[in-house]
Each structure stands twice: as C-alpha cells, then as structure tokens.
C-alpha cells in the first residue's frame, strides 16, 4: 500500500501544476452591469449585440413570484424574441438540462440568458455548451472537457451565493449515480452578467443565510488554498469583510437594498477568488451531502465549514488570523492562534444566529464511507487544500457531523 505521505507529495505536485496553469491561463470575466435595475441594462446590451432569439433558463418558482416580469417586459419592448425554459430545480440534473436543450433547438435560439440562483445559471451554462458540443454531459465533467465555444451566454443571479455568473464551473447532479459533479472550463464564463440587488430583496431568510454562507465558504477556501495568488487573496479578503458586515444586515432586514447590493458584489468577489484558487474539503463534503440528501448547497457548506477549519488549522493559522482581521474580529493583543480560533468560533456563532444547525439530521452512518471516498476523490483531483486528510480521518470528521 502507498503510504499517505507519498500520496500527499503526489497531490502537492499535481496542485503545483494546476497553480502554474491558473497563473498562465486567462480567466475571463463577464462584462458586468451592477446596481439596482442593472438587469434591464443587460437586456439592452443583449439586444444591442443583435440577439434575436433567446432562451431564458430559470426555475418555475421565480416565474411564479413574478421576478422575471421586468425582464420579459424589457425584452419584448426591445424586440428580442424569447422562450422560457423554467424546468430547473435546485441541484439541476442532466435530464433537466436535456429538456432545456430540446426547447432551445425547437425554437432555434441563438443565445442563453440564465436567470436565477446557481442552479439556473449552471443549467444555462451547460445547455449553452450542449448546444454546440455533441457529447453527453457526463463526458464534459472535469477540467477543460468542453471543446467548442458554447452559445453566447448571459447571467442574472437572483441569489448572492454561488457567484456562478463569473466562475468557470457548472455543477450537475446525477440522481442515478448519487453524484454531483462539476464541469470546469473557462469557456463556461458568461459573456455578460448583471448584479441587480433589487431582485434579491424578496429572498426568504433561510435561502439568504444558506447562499450567503456559500459565498463566505468560497472566500475562505480560496484564501486558505495553497494555490492562492495575490489577486485572489485581495478578492477573498474583500468578500469576507463585506459578507461579515452585510449578511447579518440582510438577515435582519431583507428589504435593505444597499446591503443586498453589497452581498451581490461580495458573492461575485468570492467567486473571482475561488474560480482561480479553487475550493477545498468543505465543498467536497458538502457536494456529497447535496448528492445524498439534497441538502441545500450553502447550508451544507455552512454546517461542514467549522469542522474542516478545525482540522486544517495547524497548517494555516496565519491565514485564518488574516480572515479574522478582515472580519473585524481582531484586538490588539490577540496572537495569531487566538485570532484563528476567534474566526472559527465566529462562523459557529453566525450559523447559530441564522438557524443553521451544527449537525446534519439526514446523515446516516452507513453512507459515511462512500461519502468520504467521493469527497476525497473530488478534493484530491483539483483542490489545493492546506492540510490533506486520508480516508479514516475524513470518515471520522464526517462522523462528528452526525446527530
Ligand atoms: N457554478 C458554480 O461556480 C457554483 C458554485 C457554488 C455552487 N453552485 C451550485 O449552485 C446550486 C445552488 O445555487 P443557489 O444556492 O443559488 O440556489 P438555487 O439556485 O438552487 O435556488 C434555491 C432556491 O431559491 C429560490 N430563489 C432563488 N432566487 C430567489 C429570489 N430572488 N427570491 C426568492 N426565491 C429565490 C429558488 O427558486 C430555489 O427554490 C447548487 O447546485 C450548487 O452546487 C455552483
Ligand atoms: Fe459553493
């Protein structure tokens, strides 16, 4: 059997190659419209670039609550023919993507506007990629497996969480395989996006909390990544500061437009950081909670984060201390060790304040070996984590999350 120290050395070498690639590769960013009402400016830009037939990819709930009304009115006024695919559900599946693709083809659409949370944006990304690549979604999972450029893609996030509007990733669930896998390719970054806080004022508190904690996890894992770069550090720290300040505000007063707009920007910054520096074990484990129990992505991250930070701490005390400073937790006499502990304790207290439990009710002992195996497979293929763990350690960590 290969000793774990040798495996760790091999992972480190692989991550160094990834870091060099991330340094060299251009990571495109969308042309960004920002501020209340910016989603309508994006519609104007979509018309200006000559789009005549557009597929809007969204979820039925958003159509039902009328969130899409302004955009439909604007596109009609601009003379853009549009078709609405509203079959996306949280954690979109291959079947939902194929149904959207069918609608796109039937109506001869030439571009995709993804409108909604990360689920709608990810589904929109993959539909746009499937339209130009004749291979099943499964074969596009992993790094750089999209050959042809997708159809022109535009994104309007309605949650401040995933930052999918700027990332190279799209996450797709496959209920048959009980898996949740990411497609990662710079071609998946939308051409244009709008951060419009006015679409977020009606987000219910539970979704606000979960999505906000997802954005925080992106910032934290990107900052702790050994593949972090000076610019990803700046974005990650800025996002952390904004989230620590404004997430409690929007949890108290969801209608606070200024705070919603700051959260939209924070989520974008956090995603700029993680799309290059990567995430870590929190996401790897949380993705599997999503695949097994359908735990909302951000809620799963929020639950797992303190456990993984406790484990990682010996290898990243200084960086945890910087995160504590960015969160406004530092006092003059605090040592780095004290600050690191304060940061982890603060995440636990935010969870408590937002009604996010310390443990996952649904987690079953018999699933833990398979969850740990899948999480480690995901993490060790692309995440540059500060402290590696082997299978027994991962299983023990997950067992702590059981009620
Ligand atoms: N592509 C990436 O880089 C990336 C990063 C992180 C997570 N993800 C993926 O994104 C998905 C999660 O996305 P999410 O957390 O944004 O949630 P979501 O898109 O799954 O939406 C969650 C719920 O919120 C509702 N909702 C969304 N906006 C609303 C609004 N403004 N008002 C009222 N209700 C609203 C939706 O109808 C839905 O019921 C997961 O599949 C996750 O794995 C992707
Ligand atoms: Fe995430």
General description of the model:
The protein has 403 residues and is α/β, with parallel strands linked by helices. The chain folds into two domains: 31-199, Rossmann fold, CATH 3.40.50; 203-400, Dehydroquinate synthase-like, alpha domain, CATH 1.20.1090. Helices cover 54% and strands 11% of the residues. It contains 15 helices and nine strands. It has helices at residues 4-24, 38-48, 60-64, 69-78, 94-106, 118-130, 205-224, 230-252, 257-277, 281-293, 297-312, 317-326, 336-353, 368-382, 391-400; strands at residues 31-34, 53-57, 81-85, 111-116, 142-143, 153-157, 169-174, 179-184, 192-195. The strands form two sheets. Strands 1-9-6-4-2-3 form a six-stranded parallel β-sheet, with helices on both faces. Strand 7 and strand 8 form a beta hairpin. Helix 7 runs parallel beside helix 11 and helix 10 runs antiparallel to helix 11. The chain is globular and about 60 Å long. It starts with a helix and ends with a helix. The model has no long low-confidence stretch (mean pLDDT 96). The structure holds nicotinamide-adenine-dinucleotide and fe (ii) ion. Residues 59, 61-62, 67, 90-91, 116-120, 122, 158-159, 161-162, 164, 167, 169-171, 199-200, 202-203, 207, 211, 214, 297-298 line the site of nicotinamide-adenine-dinucleotide (NAD).
